[in-house]
Design a protein that fits this description.
The structure holds 2 protein chains of 2 kinds.
Chain A lengths: L4 H22 L7 H19 L2 H5 L3 H16 L4 H19 L1
Chain B lengths: L2 H40 L4 H11 L2 H12 L4 H23 L8 H9 L3 H8 L7 H25 L5 H7 L2 H16 L1 H20 L5 H19 L7
Chain lengths: 102, 240
């Protein structure tokens, strides 16, 4: 190791904190532009969707268990399950599927 | 009842609502952070270093990417770039939240709320009506921060004792949380449903066509592309 881990941690933390805090503190007025407002409205859904699929398929030991967890998670969330319920259901589905498959 | 009393009570309520909504997030974080700790251990971090990293960063993909930089003993500049790319979405989320603050909310609340803008806390914050009450975020942070940072430290200490099947099952916890944030609004708003569907499809295609680009960079490019397109095709009418 030629690099110090604490410097790595300091570097990444400063970058992360600036990313989070600067927009909140610098943008203090209402954004009036309709397209920009719409863009910001859609951002969270797109980001989370993109991060979920297809990554969920490759996070598990088998793509099938990941795929089943995805379907189960979508259905559970659609029918009103809470954040914790959806999340646990996905884990349980993977565990059971892999128990029988592998 | 004086005016300041009223405010105190609503802040208290907001704090307890934040705690309530933060508990599932904190538990989920704990589990995911535990698996993140395994990656941290492989990169050579001590439990305290893992705790510190997670307390200050609160970022799953960002930290994971950073641990690969540490493991590779890469340059500090590379650390800056990869953190920027992997966490750039928080810049967009923080911009969204800047629009939810009342002008009367003191400035320092913006810094403290900004400290913990995560996918999940952002998700529960944007879904609330009206101006943002920072105490709601503080409530959620009180459970989310320890869950994430202590989970990472414990993962470094004990991650290897978990069987592969358990790690595999736990690794989808994060995605389950993402689904719980995006699917309910998609049910009531068809534009969001369509946007989510398009995001899934394009993300799938991009993961094969551009597998030489990192997942974090793909996320940013696709977010700007798809959210930009959606804002042009279906601009949001102000409902309030």
């Amino acid at each position: 190791m030629t690099h110090e881990i604490y410097i790595y941690i300091a570097v990444m933390s400063i970058v992360t904190l600036m990313i989070r805090i600067l927009p909140l503190t610098l943008i203090r007025h209402e954004i009036k532009n309709r397209h920009l407002r719409s863009f910001l409205y859609y951002v969270p859904y797109v980001t989370l969707a993109v991060m979920t699929f297809p990554a969920i398929l490759n996070s598990t030991q088998s793509q099938i268990s990941g795929g089943l967890a995805l379907i189960a998670g979508i259905l559970a969330a659609w029918f009103g399950a809470s954040l914790f319920q959806v999340s646990s259901l996905c884990c349980i589905i993977v565990f059971i599927t892999e128990l029988f498959m592998l | 009842m004086t005016k300041s009393d009223e405010k105190l009570i609503t802040n208290k309520q907001a704090l307890s609502e934040g705690l309530r909504d933060g508990i599932p997030i904190g538990l989920g974080y704990f589990v995911v952070a535990f698996t993140l700790g395994i990656a941290a251990k492989n990169a050579g971090l001590t439990p305290f270093q893992g705790f510190l990293t997670s307390f200050l960063n609160n970022a799953s993909a960002g930290e994971y990417a950073a641990f690969t930089v540490i493991a590779a003993d890469a340059s500090y500049l590379e650390m800056v770039l990869i953190t920027l790319v992997a966490n750039a979405r928080y810049m967009l989320m923080s911009t969204v939240l800047s629009q939810k603050f009342s002008r009367e909310t003191p400035f320092y609340h913006r810094i403290l709320v900004g400290f913990d803008v995560t996918d999940e806390i952002f998700g529960i914050t944007v879904s609330r009506n009206g101006f943002l009450n920072p105490f709601y975020n503080y409530g959620a942070m009180l459970v989310a921060l320890p869950g994430w940072s202590i989970g990472t430290a414990l993962g470094i200490m004990a991650g290897n004792i978990l069987p592969t099947s358990a790690v595999s099952a736990l690794s989808v916890a994060l995605y389950g949380m993402f689904l719980a944030v995006i699917i309910p609004p998609a049910k009531s708003d068809r534009t969001i449903a369509l946007t989510v569907a398009v995001s899934f499809i394009l993300s799938f295609i991009a993961s094969y066509m551009f597998d030489n680009i990192s997942a974090g960079t793909r996320t940013i490019i696709l977010t700007i592309l798809i959210a930009g397109l959606a804002s042009i095709v279906c601009p949001v009418h102000d409902k309030k």
